[in-house]
Amino acid sequence: MDANKIAQERYLRVLNDLADHGFWDFNRLLDLHYRNEAITRDRFPRFESCEGVQRFAVGVEADVVELGFSQGQLWLKSIRLNEREGEDRKGRGVGTELLETLCGLCDKHRIEMSLTASPKLGKGWGAEECKRLVGWYQRHGFVVDLDWEPNDSSYEDGIPMRRPVQRRELELSR
């Protein structure tokens, strides 16, 4: 079996494990909600395809995580916290908890994760905010792609990063 096919199978295992961690297929969740049907684990079919971007609603706040598969890797497209009017959830560990769950599942199923660390468009983020975001991802095992070279305008497009599979259990047993 070729490496891309193995990575696709691992990606599907991650997707199918997410519901056990409170990540609900966004489109299926909306469908059940609008049809006024019960939202239970058995109403969410298993993922069978790597096509397209998968959107997940997470927790009672309905935060959104978007994932895709490309070049043998899980691509983290976005983590968006649902911010209600007058409520700032930044700094409360919500994004960290979501990212740690994804990282743990990627490690479990041995698939690398990639992303583009980019500022919130229209929020006045600049190079310093982008650097802080990169630092946050680095604390979770991500590294900046070696091909990326910083310049003043490159922060607007985001910084490509990847997270190799962490083999903590192997290191601990040595």
From TrEMBL:
**Sorted alphabetically, which Gene3D superfamilies does this protein's record hold?**
3.40.630.30
Q: What superkingdom does the record give?
A: Bacteria
Q: Which SUPFAM superfamilies match?
A: Acyl-CoA N-acyltransferases (Nat)
Provide the protein name.
Answer: Uncharacterized protein
InterPro entries attached here?
Acyl_CoA_acyltransferase (IPR016181)
